[in-house]
Every structure is written in structure tokens, then in C-alpha cells.
Amino acid sequence: MDSDTYARLLKECIRRKSLVDGRRLHSHIIKNGCKRGTFLANHILEMYAMCRSLRDARHMFDKMAQRDEFTWNRMIAGYVHFGHLEDARQLFDKMPERSEVSWNTMIAGYSRHGHAEEAYKMFWHMQRAGIWPNQFTFASVLSACTRSLGEREGKQIHAGVIRSGFESNVFVAGALVDLYAKCENIEDAWNLFENMSERDDGLWSVMIAGYARHGQSEEALNLFSEMLRSGKKPTQFIFSSALSACATLSATKWNTSLHGYVVKVGFESNLFVGNSLIDVYAKCGSMEDAHAVFDKMPEHDEVSWNAMIGAYAQNGDGVEALKLFRQMEWTEITPDHFTLASVLSACASLAALEHGDAREVFNDIPELDTVSWTAMIGGYAQNGCPKDAFKLFELMLGTTSKPNHVTFVGVLSACSHAGLVEEGFHYYDSMIRDHCITPRADHYGCMIDLLGRAGRLGEAVDLINSMPFKHNAVIWGALLSACRIHGNFELGKLAAEYLLELEPDNSSTYVLLSNIYATAGRWEEVARMRQMMKIRGIQKKPGYSWIEVKNRVHSFMVNDRSHPQTEEIYTTLESLTEQIKEVGYMPDTNFVLHDLEEEHKEHVLCYHSEKLAIAYGIISTPPGSSIRIVKNLRACGDCHNAIKFISRISTREIILRDVSRFHHIKNGLCSCGDYW
To answer: What is the pLDDT of residue 624?
Structure first.
């Protein structure tokens, strides 16, 4: 066989990543006495490098009597590919002559492996050496700026792109759009994208992803639709970005439509797209759909497991999260730090903080990263432990882990749940000033919630008006909730109008506005809202509470008489009500949102779902043991007050998890400090 035939066979070994066949072929070349020369030696070296045998590749390199430019570049590329950057740099520095390829290989290697400053320095050294960057150089160094350096350095590179005439190159344009989008400069990203006459898959992908990441979900989905109309077929990455936008928007109709299209074009079995579908359904609260996607996937990786475990933890179902974690342990996939962070969050959602379970998991994580710190801080915030959240945040600042925008959502939530307005502003200002994080909708939502709960509604409105982007449902929902708490009729009506425009099918808005009308005694308006819901086919989400006893879940609705032990439950609850009245409890009939007589109002209050669940807990669990209740809606003020009295007379700790937070109620006191 001649050198060309051997070269083709060596290429086939590289394609199949078969080091065994490559070694056999190398032996065959030696035995046959084929003249290797530089050409064939380079192919043998390349085979070893690309089949992960860098030692054999280097041995081949050192033995070669003659080396050309390809020899040096191939050996350097092998080191770079597998992250051996020091070896690559030593070889690069020894090169007799460096070509454009040599420089690009090193710059791309530094960028890909997280050494952004080295990539940036080498970019300038390259030009001083008299070699002008090409499109691959620019794309690599822009990627380095995107990952670590920032917009200022990126703009310097952009100026070089313009001088070199590469701005219309789709490869470079994609890197520029990605840079500006990730540096929160979505306007410049869009201008670049809009001016491109040719758009490849990568360019569409980074622009859609940029909008989704920036919270501009409608723009992302509209751009996705435009791409489909242009005849382009989505890649797995484009599907993922579009699905991410659905999650931010909580757009159920889009989810269904996109999922249908995924199935139509044959991407349903794609691991990457499947993981994105799990994420979007989970973020929209559709855990049944998320689990259905998970079950249909032909294979799972660590991302799939982490997505499901994390989703259950984020949706407050710690039991299911821990069950999945145990299932994962039976597979060949090893839990990583993201898995442990989700398990940590699950412990928090199970109200395990008082037993130290969550902190124990946290302390056992060998290398704490931003995800782990953020999960623990968020757990403390949810459980009404602001001081612990702040203390942990300060500890985090003393480590190499940097807080991100999600970390600050946890810290600001801790302030909001505890009514700590000054502390909230301190951390909000620090986020912008010290950590260079631009506030997102979630941060504004926390601050508006914080101001609203504190009764500072005027300041909350001022903050809304100062927002640099379009107000979403989170913002107006926070304001509407505050108006309900403080009985601000006019402002509540305004917030509801905006909410109904954004989410006309969301029953919560109608209910909250009805509550405001009822509190003000405007029963005609209450009747009008109910009629409007009826005409539009909108049904109020029923409130229910559940308790798990001996591995069985028992659910209750208001005035529920479906339980087999109904008579005993009602007798126990009526007895409890009489006992707590004797020690000072007075039913707050303001929470009965119907035009009824006072006596009838008290009767309605008595049989709310959480009270029925607690009564069942008292008759079904040992005296003195804790009772854990979950409610799908916010607990009403009267129930919260009654439960405090029940905890006192029964000497029980009652842990109530409602839609917004945990309430640890013991000896007549709640962890929320009556501020929620």
C-alpha cells in the first residue's frame, strides 16, 4: 500500500476514534517498510492525537527528523483539544514560524477552556507579530469576551472587525450578537442581526436565545415564527431557546404548539430538546407534562435527571424530588453538584431546615459553587429565615463563587418575606453597584412586592415607571397583591386592568380584584366580575390543602365532606374552634368575600381546607408530633391566625407551605412574624 492509502485508513481510524486499529495500522506501516516521510508521519501523529493518546503523538513528534507547519499545528491542536494548554503553549513558543492557523488554535483553545484574558492578550500579540486576524480569530476572541471579559473589550474587537471588513460574515456576526445579548445590550444585538442579509442557523439561534435570556419572551417567539416563515428549519439549539422563552412567558398555548411541532419534525427523541421540554413544562407548573416527556425519552443524561429533580424541588414537591434522586442513584449516572443543589432545595421545600437536613447536605458538598450557595440562600428565604440567608450570602462573598442574578432573587425574597425594606434596598443597590448585575423582572418584582407589603405603594409605582423594559405579569401581580393587602381600590383596579391585558385567561387576577371589591363592600362589582368570568369561560382555581400520613396523601377542599373520617374531623375542628376562642381567637370575617350575615360568615371561615387538614392531622398523628400541611393557594389571614392559636393549645408545631412560602408555627408564633 502507498502513503495515500495509509493516510485514508488513518483518517478512518480518527473518524471511528479507534486507537486499537490505529496502532495496528502504524505497526503495519513499520513492518511493510513503507517510506513514512513527513506526509505520512503527520497522519500517524494526528491519529494518535485525535484518539486521545497524546503521549504517543508527542513521541511521534519528537522522533520526526523533519517537521513542517502541519506537524507543529497538529500537535498543538491535540494538546488544546484535550485542555493541555501549558504543553500547547510551550510548543507554540518553540515554533520556528507561526502561521495564522497556529495563532488561531491557541486563541480558540484559551477561549474554549475559560482563559479569556490569555486569549485576549494573544489576539493583540498576533497582530504585533504581523499576522492579521481572520473570521475564526475574531469569533474566538469575541467568545472569550462574552464568557469572561465583557462589553468594553468586546467593542474594541468589534472595531477591528469593522476595519477588517468581517462584519457581514455570519460566523463573526453570530459571535457579536451573542456578545451584546449576553452583556445585556439587546438593542445593539438586534441592530446587528437586522442588518445581516444572510442569516445562518447559528445567528438565528443566538438572537432568539438573547431575547429569551433578556426576558423578552414575546420577541423571542415572534422571531422564531419569522424564522419558520423564512423557510429555515429549527435546530435543537433554536428549539431550546424558543422553549426557554415559553418558560419565561408561562405561555401554555405556545408550549403545546411548540411541542407539537417538535414531534412533527422528529425531534421528540432528541436528548437536548427533551431536556428543554422538561424545563419549560416544569417552569410553567405542568409537572405531569414534564414527567410524561421524561418517561417517553429513550435515554436520560445527568441534565435530564437534574431537570426533573430540580423541577420538583422548585415546584415545592420535595418528596417527589427525593424519590427521583433515589431512582437516579440506581442508574450509571453519577449525581453532580447541580443534582446535590436540587436535593438541597428539596430538603428546604420539605421544611427540613429546622432539623438541619438541608444544611447538612449543603455542608457535605465537596466544592460549593454558585448554584449550591444560591439554593441554600433561597431555602432560608422560603422558610422565613432572613438572618440565616444574609449570613450565608456574606459567607459566599468571601469565596471564589460569585453571586448571580438568581442569588439576588433569593436575597431580595428574604427581605420581602420579612418586610426588611432598608435591607432590601441595600442588597438591590449592591447588586447593581458592586456586582454589575442589571436588574431583571424578577428583581423588580421582589422590590415592588417588598414596598407593596410595607404599604409604600407610591414608591412601588415609581419603581414600576422607572423600569427600562416592558412590564410583565409578575410586576403587576405583585402590585395587585399589595393593593389587596392594604385595600387600595383604585390602584388595584389599575393593576388588574394591565394584568387582564397581559393574561386574560388567568383566573387569579379576577379573584384578587373581586377580593378588593368585596373588602370595600362593593358587592355589585363583585357580581360583575363573577359574571365576566362566567361569560369568558374562566373558572376559579379551587383551593385545597393536603397532608401526608403514613405515606398516604389526604386532600381537603372548603366544606369538604368526602373523607371517610369526616364526622370525626368536623367534631375535632369544632372543638378546636371553641377552645381557641376561649384563649382569645376572634374570627376575622373580613376574609369572607360574600355578602352574608355575620354568623354565616363565621361558619364559612370554620371549614377552610387547611383547618380540615390540621384537624385530621391531630386525630391521625401522635400527640406532640409536627403537622405538615401544603396548600395550593395563599393561606387567608383568619386561617393563619387560627392556626397560631391551635399550635398553642395543642402543643404542636404546624408547618404550612402555601403558594408563596413556609410558615413554621409553634407556641402561637409564626416564622413569618405575621408578615407575608
So the answer is: 92
Pairing state of beta strands 654-657 and 627-631? parallel
| 318-329 helix and 302-314 helix, angle to the nearest 10 degrees | 160
Mean pLDDT score of the chain:
86
Give the CA angle between residues 412, 418, 424 to the nearest 5°: 35
> Which of left, alpha, beta for 556 (phi over 0: left; psi -120 to 50: alpha)?
beta
The least confident of 130-139, 162-171, 281-290 is 281-290
Residue 665, pLDDT above cutoff 70: yes
Consecutive H or E run containing 542? none
Strand partners, 662: 657
3-state DSSP assignment of residue 613: helix
Which region, left, alpha or beta, applies to residue 488 given φ > 0 means left and ψ of -120 to 50 means alpha? beta
Give just the sign of the alpha carbon dihedral 639, 644, 647, 649: negative
Backbone angles phi, psi at 494, to 5 degrees: -65, -45
User: 250: alpha, beta or left, given left = phi > 0 and alpha = psi -120 to 50?
Assistant: left
CA angle 414, 416, 420 (to 5 degrees): 90
Task: Report phi then psi at 665, rounded to 5.
Answer: -110, 120
User: Amino acid identity of 580?
Assistant: I
Give the type of residue at 457. L
Enter the DSSP assignment of 665.
E
Bridge partners of 554, per DSSP, are: 547
Cell, residue 612: 380540615
pLDDT for 236-276, tens place per residue?
Answer: 889 988 888 877 665 556 667 888 888 888 888 889 899 88
CA dist list (Å): 107 to 110, 115, 459, 505: 5, 9, 49, 52
* pLDDT tens, position by position, 562-572: 999 999 999 99
Angle of helix 609-620 versus helix 637-650 axis, rounded to 10: 20
In DSSP terms, 557 is beta-bridged to: 544
Query: Is pTM, for the whole model, over 0.90?
Result: no
Whether 657 shows a pLDDT value over 80: the answer reads yes
Judge contact between 543 and 631, C-beta under 8 A: yes
What sign results for the dihedral spanned by CA atoms 351, 353, 355, 360? Answer: positive
> For the segment 371-409, what is each residue's pLDDT rounded down to a tens digit?
788 888 988 888 888 999 999 999 999 999 999 988 999
Grid cell in block for residue 548: 401526608
For 345-376, the pLDDT digits (tens) are: 666 555 454 445 677 777 877 778 887 888 88
Cα(536)–Cα(344) distance, rounded to whole angstroms? 42
Rounded (10°) CA dihedral 543, 547, 553, 555: -30
